[in-house]
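Hey, quick one: can you model this chain's 3D structure?
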Amino acid sequence: MDLMGEQESPRADRPLNTITVAGREFLLVEVGGSEVHVASEYTDGEIGIEVGGSPDDDDEDAILWANKTLCGREWFHVAPGAEDPTLLWQDAAYAPTCRACLRVVDSWLPKSTVPAGLSLLAEVVADAVVERSATFVTGVPGEHLEVTRRAIRKALRDRGFNSNTHVIDDVLGVWSDDAYNALDRDDLGASVRAALDRITGGEMSEAPTPTPTIAWHTWVADL
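Sure thing. Here's the predicted structure for all 223 residues.
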């Protein structure tokens, strides 16, 4: 079943580590680096890599997987799973982290409706970013993450600021270099000097103002 020829593939050296999304099964794989990618099952016209069967014979239970990830890169190893006996110093992979692969998978999912209050949330977040250059939005439901991110970035673009976002679990971080560059230099300098005085003077009774945090569910009705 191996379409790679007689040469043994170094990429099929771990047991299956798969996830199912929208009724389709995907293999979590590595291409080098820290990101986890996904490969789909083999289809005609692709190069197939056999994973999941016995290496000693032609196992009928083996599955052929495409040799390239959804983002178009050749993969080298199956990402380690929780039951992987070769897992020593690495963390087990439970989901893809490659943004390009995730965008492909996301395009296959049903689009969520825009919940009531999202536009208001986007304006509140934009206010915070303009004032402090960055903020965090907590408790963002996974199905509304992308539409929330787009709404916030649009609100900032409407004010003339480009922005960036980063997601960790259900927390959406938003920051803008343009907003930072637009901050009043005198106020910014005073804040820095005050922080240095607290550190050098050993007086930490007045803690620095933290980056503002905004709760998603405070502003949005997820019905």
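One thing worth noting: The two ends are 49 Å apart (CA to CA).
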